[in-house]
Amino acid sequence: NAGVTQTPKFQVLKTGQSMTLQCAQDMNHNSMYWYRQDPGMGLRLIYYSASEGTTDKGEVPNGYNVSRLNKREFSLRLESAAPSQTSVYFCASSEGPYQPQHFGDGTRLSIL
Amino acid sequence: DQQVKQNSPSLSVQEGRISILNCDYTNSMFDYFLWYKKYPAEGPTFLISISSIKDKNEDGRFTVFLNKSAKHLSLHIVPSQPGDSAVYFCAAPNSGGSNYKLTFGKGTLLTVNP
Questions:
Q1: Three-state SS for B33?
Q2: What is the pLDDT of residue A41?
Q3: Which of A74, A80, A100, B22 is most buried (most C-beta within 10 Å)?
Q4: In chain B, what is the greatest distance between 2 CA atoms, to the nearest angstrom?
Q5: Cβ proximity of B89 and B2 under 8 Å
Q6: Chain B residue closest to A104 (CA)?
Q7: CB distance B32 to B50 below 8 Å
Q8: CB A67 within 8 A of CB A77
Q9: Which of B102, B108, B109 to mutate to test the interface with A (most CBs of A within 10 A)?
Q10: Contact check, Cβ <8 Å, A106/B49
Q11: pLDDT category, B96, cuts 50, 70, 90?
């Protein structure tokens, strides 16, 4: 019963470094999402993929890129990390719109 | 501009009593609402939802009420249990015209005391 798996769980980067956060789901869901959560804030949508082959911007897309590699996998890339991107990142998946989203346990990312 | 607002950052109740968590929204296009629960170091977990065609939805100890005229919804937990201690988020799709985009409130930390 893995659900949504995110790797890594923790990461520390230096400003300007790049990295890719990985996400995979085993529920055969069509839609996948990337969120960030900052202290005292709700979750904010970075990018989403409504279905395999499509990606769209969310509320806070600047500084990020995504790839929907196949139906199972949706990755988030930081090309040149900045301290403002220090956050907890959550990946989620759902069957479609108006369906509950299932979340991974998050990646805690610190950028120095 | 916060379209989904949870104005109480925290709430503390005694075990066995009722917990009431509130959520207000500003976007009249919202027609479906969800509640999520989040424990520390875990991802949010879906709890219960309600469509705007209803004013109440019940699932065991959890009931969500929707007042469309007031743009207000509330989550009732009866009876509250210590294991209910978590952060609760309300959320709504149809942000910016896309039903895929969920807008979350900032959350309310519920503490249930034994």
A1: strand
A2: 83
A3: A74
A4: 44
A5: no
A6: B43
A7: yes
A8: yes
A9: B102
A10: no
A11: low
Handedness of CA A64, A23, A99, B84 (dihedral sign): negative
pLDDT tens, residue by residue, A65-103: 999 989 999 999 999 999 999 999 999 999 988 889 999
Question: How many beta-carbon pairs under 8 angstroms link A with B?
Answer: 61
Contact B44 A43 (CB under 8 A): yes
- At residue B18, φ and ψ (nearest 5 deg) are -90, 140
Amino acid at B102: L
- Looking from the CA of B39 toward its CB, the CA atoms found within 13 Å total 8
CB-based burial label for A33 (10 Å; 0-12, 13-18, 19+): buried
